[in-house]
Every structure is written in structure tokens, then in C-alpha cells.
Amino acid sequence: MEEKNNKLSLCGSCHCGSIRITLPSLPETATSCNCSLCRRTGAILAYYELGKVLIEGHPENTESYVCGDKTLKNFRCKTCGVLTHWEPIGASPGARHGVNLRNFEPQLLTAVKVRLFDGADTWEFLD
Fold first, then answer.
1. Which of 23, 80, 90, 102 has the lowest tally of Cβ within 10 angstroms?
2. pLDDT digits over 91-115, tens only?
3. Complete domains list, the chain, with CATH
């Protein structure tokens, strides 16, 4: 990972590089969820106000998947299949979206507190 002035790079990408993501800031926390989708993708998500994250290559290089309560669109790269982020279907003022931190260098993820969320049963944080 590139480090400039002792700061972690906030730039990441899917595996093939078709989707490039730039975070506006290092998140304080991220979420590891055990719901049926997250446990399969292995995503660790950080949340930002919708529109604050620069996502290059989206939507032309992404495809979406909607499941469950049909409130979120999960996006993955059309080429390599890597989950990049999710967006709310009915975005309202102050809406947020989730960004998969697995698309960044490992040093970024180790700098963030990862909270465990039980999305399978209780909808509560386990830590």
C-alpha cells in the first residue's frame, strides 16, 4: 500500500481494477456481518453518506443484486465478480451506503475497528 506522509492510502479497487474506489476518510469502524449474503462474500463494510465515496467505473462496469427486504442494491464488478459496495434503493436525504473494505490494502483494514454484527438472527452487534 502506498503511504504518503504516514497516512494510509484510501484508494482501492476490485480484483481486475475496473472499479476504483476512493474513500473520503478512514472509517472509525467497519462491520463484519453473518447474514446470508455477507457470510458468503466475506465483505467487511464501512459506511459513508451516499455520494461521498468516489466510485469510478460504476455503473458501467457493475451489476447489481437485490435480496432480502429489497432495500439495498449490492454491486459487483461485471468482469471479476468482486463485491464492491451497496446502495439504498430508495435513497433519502442522509442515506448512506456500504463499501467493502476488502478491496483495499490489508493495512487499511487493520487500522479500523471491525465490529461483529449478527445479521442472521438478532440484528445486534456481538461485541
1. 90
2. 788 899 999 999 999 999 999 999 9
3. 11-120 (2.170.150.70)
